[in-house]
Amino acid sequence: AKGSSASVNLLSFFNEQILELTEKTDTNSYVIVSYSNMGLKRTKTFALDVAVYGRNNMSWDDDRRAAVFVSSRDPAAMQFAKYVTSIVRENFREDVPINIQYASGIFEALNEFGINYVVDPASAFEDNVGTSSIDFLQFPYQTLVYHGGDCDDLTILNCSLLEAIGIKTAFITVPGHI
């Protein structure tokens, strides 16, 4: 009707070059609206600048988004997890469920490997949870290479390692931590 408005969700499609972004960049985009008015087809094009953040950036306004950083196929995570499971199998105990043994082995191996909890001074999870602030999340290989990360980085790494050996995982967020 005359003077009315409507809201529509817009989806964007990106090619693999998006994964090469390490810093925020503004990109020129266009929104093309096609519609009919009084039997006539019309098209209107609007230029739109869109802020695109780097591959490691995420806002915590929806904490489920962190799941995209979990990768059971991350080569470093797969290698680490498979190596640990081979050691666990050599020392298998009949009285303890195998998944508990794998999880314990991964936990201990990360400790021996020197993985440390490091508070993210610029954008800690506790400062960003439930906000549109941008946090830096590490992929599993990055946490292994850097030998540490904050709570979200270590959670992503642990979930990736467990998923790499077939153990399903989920995130639990509590005030100030994941």
Model description:
The strands form 3 sheets. The chain has a two-stranded antiparallel ribbon with strand order 1-2. The chain has a two-stranded antiparallel sheet with strand order 3-5. A two-stranded parallel sheet has the order 4-6. Helices cover 32% and strands 20% of the residues. Helix 1 crosses helix 5 and helix 4 packs across helix 5. Strand 1 and strand 2 form a beta hairpin. The model has no long low-confidence stretch (mean pLDDT 88). By secondary structure, the protein is of the alpha+beta class. It has 5 helices and 6 strands.
Instruction: Please provide the count of β strands.
Output: 6
Indicate the mean pLDDT: 88
Gyration radius from CA atoms, angstroms: 22 Å
Low-confidence stretches: none
Structural class: alpha+beta
Concise summary:
Helix content is 32%, strand content 20%. It has five helices and six strands. The chain starts with 24 loop residues before the first strand and ends in a 14-residue tail after the last helix.
Secondary-structure topology with pairs:
Layout: E1 25-37, E2 40-52, E3 57-59, H1 75-90, H2 98-113, E4 116-117, H3 125-128, E5 134-136, H4 140-146, E6 148-149, H5 151-164
Parallel strand pairs: 4-6
Antiparallel strand pairs: 1-2, 3-5
Helix pairs in contact: 1-2, 1-5, 4-5
